[in-house]
Write a structure and sequence with these properties.
Layout: E1 6-7, E2 11-14, H1 21-27, H2 31-36, H3 45-61, E3 65-71, E4 74-82, E5 89-96, H4 105-118, E6 127-133, H5 137-145, E7 149-160, E8 163-173
Helix pairs in contact: 1-3
């Protein structure tokens, strides 16, 4: 699959580039990114170099599709579809640099990615899953705001450099209303 660029009123979603390596490396020093995403710990500069180099081949294979989220040309996070199965399902994943959190950029980027993921011009997905380490309230609040429906707890299902963690799982179907739904694991 050829990489695509998605644009919103203030963001661009495009392939990570070599000039993003330092920003990726800096962001991945964040304790929350290291705790809640499957990045190596400690996260060294070479990991960012390898990450950027790997993305074009993953797009070509069509199973893992990662974008850099850029605001004014500056990398503020990443988002993508992972484990795209070719049968209408994939999983969304994301992280935001600490200094970029709380300004609605993640929801803006995710809405664009989700629309593309469901569209016939994109992946034509029927189901998008979201998974996160149980306790990752910030990620869960973002997914809930995007209309994902909480489905349950996956016991010891997620692996990271910390070992196994329980995971929360939610989904969004192409036919779903995108209004936020209550989640039993989040405060009302």
């Amino acid at each position: 699959m050829e990489p695509v660029i998605l644009r919103t009123p203030r963001l661009e979603l495009s392939l990570p580039r070599q000039e993003d390596v330092d920003a990726i490396h800096r962001a991945c020093q964040d304790a929350d990114i290291q705790r809640y995403t499957p990045v190596p710990v400690p996260y060294e500069r070479r990991h960012a170099v390898e990450f950027v180099a790997r993305i074009p081949g993953e797009w070509e294979a069509g199973q893992h599709l990662t974008w850099a989220i850029r605001d004014g040309g500056r990398l503020v996070g990443t988002i993508g579809f992972y484990r795209v199965d070719g049968r209408g399902a994939g999983e969304i994943g994301y992280w935001m640099a600490p200094e970029a959190r709380g300004a609605g950029r993640l929801r803006e980027a995710a809405k664009a990615a989700i629309e593309w993921g469901f569209s016939a011009e994109g992946l034509a997905l029927d189901r998008i899953e979201w998974r996160a380490v149980a306790g990752n309230v910030a990620s869960a609040k973002a997914a809930m705001a995007l209309g994902f429906r909480y489905e349950g707890l996956l016991r010891q299902a997620l692996m990271s450099s910390h070992g196994r963690d329980d995971g929360w799982i939610a989904s969004l179907l192409s036919s779903d209303d995108r209004r936020p739904q209550p989640w039993p694991v989040l405060p009302a």
